[in-house]
Amino acid sequence: MNKRTRIIIPSIALFISLTILSACNLPADDQPPPITANTAAAMTVEAVLTQAAPSPTPLIIATATPTAVPCENVITFVEDVTIPDEYDLAPGTAFTKIWRIKNVGTCTWTTSYMLAFYQDNSMGGPASIPLVTNVAPGQTIDLSVNLVAPTAAGRYTSKWTLKDQNGNFFFTTRNNPLWVIIDVVTPASGN
Predict the structure, then answer these.
(1) 112-131 pLDDT, tens digit each
(2) Which domains are delineated in the chain?
(3) Distance from the CA of 49 to the CA of which of 31, 138, 156, 162 falls in 20 to 30 A?
(4) Is the pTM of this model over 0.70?
């Protein structure tokens, strides 16, 4: 077989196939099929369903998933309610330190938060104390801790701050902990 014969045979086969397929779509005659009781019922149901069908909902494609923004824990120191800085105490004196602070962050401090010893001298205080109430952003709270002055004379500092429910320390707006500074003095040299 030559090249010409090889091209003509597939072309003829393609032509015959297309002719047969297109003939399948031609109407057999110009008259519609007769309407029977079943056909009429089916047409009625189709018309009712078409009228009751809701309009199509527009397709919405999400391009990004919103990410939750974590809240921020921030303290503002308001005032020392008791024991101002460099307060004189006799050796071994028990005292209660109270700080007034304000929640200026965006997280609510829950009872899962705690006042916690941070550094320097713990003065016999506990490692941590849970908050007794929730503190919403903008609210103020007094935090207290029971401490004992060391027995040797000198200046002592105890630093405290808050911990969140995950155990993370957080600080004041100046990035400082809360502190108590006392001077332990013997009664003969006391103020």
Answers:
(1) 999 999 999 999 999 999 99
(2) 75-189 (2.60.40.10)
(3) 31
(4) no
